[in-house]
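Need tokens for this chain, all 271 residues.
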Amino acid sequence: MYEKNMFIINILILVLVGYLLVTLVLYFFQRNLLYYPAVNDYFGEKLNVQVEKVKIKTEDDIELLSWYHSKNPKDYKTILFLNGNAGTLENRIYKINHFKDVNVNFLIIAWRGFSGNKGKPSEKGLYEDAKSAIKWLKNKGIKEENIIIYGESLGTGVATEIAQNKNFAGVILESPFTSMIDVGKTKYPFFPVRLLLKDKYESDKKIKKIKSPILIMHGEVDGIVPFWMGKKMYKLANEPKYFYFSKYDDHMMEYNEKLLNELKKFINSLN
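Here are the structure tokens for all 271 residues:
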């Protein structure tokens, strides 16, 4: 009996030690699991819209490679595109190519640690990157009320942060999450995600402070950010608010005619 009990105790100790080791690995390497600068799943499409490659300097002295397309800043709104957690700027070509068919200017920035930029990505760092991009646009003479903040995936967390209590023309959130805590719980349900997580991106606590018109887009078969998060973010958002929920889209939504029509309709409503 004693030997049997000791065997069970030893097994429990091994399980506990294994759990603690995995927890430590998750904690110390969590940003490697959140940011993927070298993953380029949407690379290869040719750029069909003219862009100027610019460097935007942040307050902490990091230069961010960015692409700027100026069609008519005086008469058209300007999109600040805040992309997700993976890949270089070239991975968004399949999206920004379509902007040439919309009456907008746009600026898309590469995060710190991405596209050859110095620094390491973090929640605080990405907020600083986005705020520096806003400052850069304002220095170009583009007023806050003529800027549309467009967040994609992880970028929705940054967009929600910087759009609080501001007077932006509009906000677009593509595949938004409620918080990185909630996303983490879906991926690692047996770990104390809230305690471990450094970069929480708590968008659900901030969206009520966005006063600009908002469009939320999400695919119902999203395998990374559950669709219910997009629906909840829409429910929490202030009016005027609009949605485009696609039945068959996954996390990276297809830029098809339906989605583009919704984008154009929303942007035109801001003029």
